[in-house]
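Hi there, hope your week has been kind to you so far. For a while now I've been wondering how a particular protein folds. I'm sending you its amino acid sequence along with the backbone structure tokens. Could you read through the record and tell me how the tokens relate to the sequence? Take your time with it, there's no hurry, and the full record follows here.
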Amino acid sequence: MKNLADTQLKARKPIEDTLNGKFKAWKDKKDIDNKYRQRQFENSKEIESLYLRMDEIPKTTKNSVKEVSK
């Protein structure tokens, strides 16, 4: 029985190590993707707020600029 357990442990160990390494690499890549996704979201919110501020600025024409300067 002990022999069987040792054999199974020896067979499983390299597979588990490989799996853990692949999982760690996947998790690191996912963390990097989430970090950049968050930055992209923050930048898009900032751009949206700037567009809204631009829309609040009154639009002027050439005639109204000339009238103001008189």
